[in-house]
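Feature request disguised as a bug report, sorry. It would help if multi-protein outputs had a clear separator. Right now it looks like this:
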Amino acid sequence: MPVRAEHFVQYVYKRQPPSGAHGKGRLRTTLDAGLQQIVQTILDNRLEDLSNRGAKNGAVLIVDHRRNEILAWVNSGAGLDDVPASWIDAVTTPRQPGSTLKPLLYALTLEKGWTAATMVDDSPLSEPVGRGLHSYHNYSRIHYGPLRVREALGNSLNIPAVRAIQFVGVDEFLACLHELGIRSLQQHPDYYGDGLALGNGEITLLELVQAYTVLARQGTYHPLKFFMAEEFRQEETCRIFSAETASLIGNILSDPEARRLEFGNGGLLRFPVQTAVKTGTSSDYRDAWAVGFNHGFTVGVWVGNLDHDATDGITGANGPALVLRSVMAELNRHLETRPLYLSPRLVQAEICRDTGLQADGHCTSLSEWFVPGNGPKTETVQAKDLRPVYLRHPTQGMQLAMDPRIADDREAFVFRLANLKTNRKVDWYVDDKRVATTRTGEYVWPLQRGVHSVRARMWPAGSGQFQDT
């Protein structure tokens, strides 16, 4: 039996072993004993380095996605008495995934019409939660304004991700995650809301790695193998994303230039062999993740505390990323390496760096990949232009509190429309009385006590017809 693989064996015994997978008292799994031991050492050594920052637990899962086989299933300490909660299998324990779901979200946006050059607005954003408002912010607290999807994903920015899930819909993204094998998210879409884009649910390392193998395998889902048996036949495979979408996401995640705003051009995320890499950090630094894939292997790493204690500022980039890098180096050591798959159907075109539009010779340009038939635009098409216009603030049933420290006649609330194109006439109505006309999707309303209704009437340019919301 492979070295120190107790958790894996416990897990597979809960499943029905296939005929021929065991005999003479042995369970024939796909684990590589030598690799298991090496990764165990890598993980334990890294956790020792991080112990002064409050991290006590970790896990690593390695998959050969060419054969769909799990090669290593490693928990820190592997049952040692001096490692807290080492008897708990961190590979199958649900935790908050932070930003690691963003590549899967952006893959869905590409399937629905976005491109790597679609412009997404990274500006301050407040969204309704229940009867109140929640303000979103990026990790660095910096806002970059309009950005291309490649930059938004590469820099793992939160506000563009929220706009992305608003485009595809929380229900559709949740359904997509289920198709990818992430079944721990069993609540209604309304339970997660837009925060699902930022990892507010809980999933397992096993589910996360399974989902990333879909990106690594050109968009197709293949159930992972646990047993070595010729008689074993896995369930049917299925296509989740197109090969063009999957390879484009991999191309973005392996592009150092795409992440320079938040991560710089160098560092641990720049691998010597082309590797798609994503990190994630949950609220209060309780979970730190690093997941990636190259031409042959998909690897996921989790670092944190199984008792849910927060760490001292450990992020995916400064914690598990070094484990991921070391594991990938070990996997590549004795193999002929290759670049990531890039669909031959993708076409390259020159675009303006700052607008995402087709290059016209009057802008700083760069090359971008596009799916045939969905190339660069000649006029600005931002993400908001692909979505319906609706009243974002206020929402149905929203409750506002007057601030006793401010005079009532100085308090105000911003009415805001989502996805409205610029320079459109809007009439604003409160309690069915028109109170203002603007040329933007916002109006600052003097706050008044009582129960009120709000309505916006939009007048498309050059049209005598209106649309109410």
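(second protein starts here, but nothing in the output says so)
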Amino acid sequence: MKSMETSATAPNFSPQRALQLARQTLTIEAAAVSGMMDRLDASFAAAVDLILHSKGRLIVSGMGKSGHIARKIAATMAST
């Protein structure tokens, strides 16, 4: 593993460009999250109700990235 030197910056690094890209990314992500509000409907509430009133275990699964998300959901459900 290559160690990172804190005193040197990568060639062609621009702090202004990094900030611009970070702000652009956050703007895009904020719009996506905001857009999700319009998609919430009775089916979301029904899913929550099913989970709250279930007996036994809740099973989540996935492969790859969705598997990582499933593990995070399982950990959250186990701790709440």
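Even a blank line would do. Unrelated, but nice: The chain has a mean pLDDT of 89.
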